[in-house]
From TrEMBL:
<dbReference type="InterPro" id="IPR016032">
    <property type="entry name" value="Sig_transdc_resp-reg_C-effctor"/>
</dbReference>
<feature type="modified residue" description="4-aspartylphosphate">
    <location>
        <position position="55"/>
    </location>
</feature>
<keyword id="KW-0805">Transcription regulation</keyword>
<dbReference type="Pfam" id="PF00196">
    <property type="entry name" value="GerE"/>
</dbReference>
<keyword id="KW-0804">Transcription</keyword>
<dbReference type="InterPro" id="IPR039420">
    <property type="entry name" value="WalR-like"/>
</dbReference>
<feature type="domain" description="HTH luxR-type">
    <location>
        <begin position="154"/>
        <end position="219"/>
    </location>
</feature>
<keyword id="KW-0597">Phosphoprotein</keyword>
<protein>
    <submittedName>
        <fullName>Response regulator transcription factor</fullName>
    </submittedName>
</protein>
<dbReference type="InterPro" id="IPR001789">
    <property type="entry name" value="Sig_transdc_resp-reg_receiver"/>
</dbReference>
<dbReference type="InterPro" id="IPR011006">
    <property type="entry name" value="CheY-like_superfamily"/>
</dbReference>
<dbReference type="InterPro" id="IPR058245">
    <property type="entry name" value="NreC/VraR/RcsB-like_REC"/>
</dbReference>
<keyword id="KW-0238">DNA-binding</keyword>
<dbReference type="InterPro" id="IPR000792">
    <property type="entry name" value="Tscrpt_reg_LuxR_C"/>
</dbReference>
<dbReference type="Pfam" id="PF00072">
    <property type="entry name" value="Response_reg"/>
</dbReference>
<feature type="domain" description="Response regulatory">
    <location>
        <begin position="4"/>
        <end position="122"/>
    </location>
</feature>
Amino acid sequence: MTIRVLLADDQALLRSAFRVLVDSEPDMEVVGEASDGAQAVLLAKERRPDVVLMDIRMPGTDGLAATRLISEDADLAQVHVVILTTFEVDDYVVQSLRAGASGFLGKGSEPEELLSAIRIAAGGDALLSPAATKGLIARFLAQGDGDDDRAPLRAERLDALTGREREVLVQVAGGHSNDEIAERLAVSPLTVKTHVNRAMAKLGARDRAQLVVIAYESGLVRPRVD
């Protein structure tokens, strides 16, 4: 099965480099290129890619706005957005997740990391390392950004989860993989995957990245500010 990739970056040279890299893989193909967010949204609707590599800083409609438009479109539920950014800008990271991105990746990443990120996102997983989750995300959510009115609603929705699903959600919020969670909870990876999928369905989350945000916003996981 070929992973269809859409490139969204205002720098033609970078798009060209990404295209060469992606098209060199037997299980991937670039199905379109966008130089701004508005064009990315249009191409996402036309080409229905599996993954969009989205730059944040673009003229006109930026990457965050484009990501939000894609994630809010029910017809594009299977389109996963990976934000390309620098890890120094903490607020961009969490804003991208709240906008519906499946994760984020530094532009200085190695080629193999980028290809792995595409495959992870296409599979519905989140690109969140424990360090990134506990550091960048927790620190920013601790500050709040005017969306506190959503917290009670998030917390109420958690009532639908079983005790084990809550346990798994806490582990997901820590940035742990299914294998790591299975080892921590002494269950099989398949069991963990089942709990994650059920939690996503009950909470209306598109992917693991949104589960992380819900876990913090609902208060299930408390941010640590060192």
